[in-house]
What does this fold into?
Amino acid sequence: MTRLMRWTALFLMMSGGAAYAQNLAGTWQGTLNAGKDLRLVFRIASGGAGLTAMMYSIDQGAGGLAASSVALQGRTLRITITGIDATFEGTVSQDDNSIAGTFTQGGRPLPLTLARATADTAWAIPEPPRPMAADARAVFEVATIKPSIPDRPGKLFTVRGRQVLTVNTTLTDLVVFAYDLHARQVTAGPSWMDTEKFDVTGQPEAQGIPAIPQLRAMIRQLLADRFTLTFHREPRELPVYALVVASGGPKLARNDSNPNGLPSLLFKGLGVLPAVNATLGDLAGVMQSAVLDRPVVDKTGLSGRYDFTLTWTPDESQFASMGVRVPPPAPDATAPGLFTAFQEQLGLRLEPTRAPVEVLVIDTVEKPSEN
It folds into this structure.
């Protein structure tokens, strides 16, 4: 074969691969059986940078999740969505109308076959929930506060539809969330603030999904109305962690799909934190409220929202605020410690230092009024 023939063959192979990748562009959908049926939709596009994809879990009401990578090798397609620790890998059929493979999330593989959708067969993707108007009154129209079930582990802050829910939360937890603090920044309250736990269910007065600042404002109003909380602020120098960019730069997948949407940072276990649509302020807040023993101050200077998964082997000093006793690491544990994971996986560092921070000194507080 002459050099010209070899170059011509290589060009045809490359052109054929590009055309084949172009042929995968479109909408693909399939049903994942994960204890209940979940309809997944992948929208694949082809451009100058190769294939890109968005995934929608339409039965969970989730917005689109951008794939961090889409790779096609022969007829094997692999889509990675780092923010939820998920991959789909499958084989494209000879007629290019189905992809049989496996969807894996959090190490749990499940079979999934995707079919190419047409205008007639495509499932409708729900419109993303409308955000609460920026100028809306951030107050609860109605709210109930009940004692939590005794000895129930863990705690939860979430929004479901129009309901704002907290489960197994102490008054200190509510104050920490409402004012975006670490527990060390709340002082002088009665002992029951840290021991008695409550479940809160509230419906906002305004329509739409509240943003985090609006959620905090609603909880602040609840604290004043139902716990008669008053306090004053004092600056104090405390040990903190400064969240900064590591020398190699950040390693974060930007998410521009829903800039006004709520972030998702829900632990999949001790030391596994998938994040979707999250700011670095959100990350600092989760670290200081759930994991670390001191406040975390975001000093990265990075704006925007990101998808990532942080995986580490926790030690006994972490998760104390969640009432969790961290077991010794397993002999076969491969994940690094938290500080190494921040640098290797996110391109960020947690620097221990001291800094002046604001402290809330409790003046008066009462157990919640009857519902």
Q: What stands out?
A: The first helix runs from residue 3 to 23.
